[in-house]
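Protein: AB hydrolase-1 domain-containing protein
Species: Eleusine coracana subsp. coracana
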Amino acid sequence: MPLAGAAAAAAAVAFLSPAVAVSSRALPLRRPRHLVLRAVASPPASKPDAAPSKTGKWQWEFENQPVNIYYEEHEPEIAENVKNILMIPTISDVSTVEEWRMVAKDIVRRNKELGYRATIVDWPGLGYSDRPSLNYNADVMESFLVQLMNSPNSPVANADGELAIVGGGHAATIAVRAAGKGLIRPSAVAAVAPTWAGPLPIVFGRGSDMETRYGLLRGTLRAPGIGWMMYNVLVSNEKSIQSQYKSHVYANPENVTPDIIESRYELTKRKGARFVPAAFLTGLLDPVQSREEFLQLFAKLEGDAPVLIVSTLNAPKRSKAEMEALRGAKGVTKFVEVPGALLPQEEYPLAVAEELYKFLQESFSARR
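Structure follows.
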């Protein structure tokens, strides 16, 4: 390893030493060697009761570069008076449509006066979507979401102007930011365990000296050769993923199964898997830089669209504080709590589905 690469690796290890839970799904870092991140050539087979009705790829164009975006649809048995839901995974090293499958299936199978069709979409650079070496940041992810919702050939193009967005973590906050700018016009927004601060900035701050170090780490992770080496040391190993899931991603360590860890580990091995995590870890995917800005995003939706906040009972302290700041905040229509930590939709899908279903019924009924 060249001397410069060795220094960068040493700097990364120093960055990751605090045993602090932070406001992101994969990242309170407990040991210098561990972080979390990865992917496979095609999605693993779903459990029969959670299998999507349809899967496909949508081509997103960014800077004249086509990027194949993976999506799956969950259709109701009765296709009358059906409303549409877009579900977007929590942004993290191991982000995947799989986290929403059981929630989608539970909501879709409820055949009441209003029915629902759920479309789950992987972010570019994550899950089962292509992972090109783009300069990922919050603006890029916002641009993707805007094009997804507004493009005439996207998987959610035929929503008849009524599309609810459901997102977790940073994904929810990016959606709220886009809606506040008027770039998208969702019928309703549900933010599940919403976050805004990446792992390193929330622990070490955003001073100019730290931003310089973040840039060095980010550049090293993106570099050929040394980038994969560092990524494998910091992120791509099953023990690290299991440790993080048990410590703060899930509330109950007994719910972390070998199948989940294996699936998430496979996500960290896809070609280009390190590019989005390099941005996420160092704060480039943060949609805002303070709690005040976080609250202002939601305030901008006051009177425009109903907003549900789904907080969790066992979120890490820092993440929990940001969620609690939204209780009673301007622009927030409803605030509820469910079991879980940073990924309740995967750990307690039925509890999350129940709250989402009630909110959707209330929101769409009010529009009739």
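Remarks: The longest strand covers residues 65-74.
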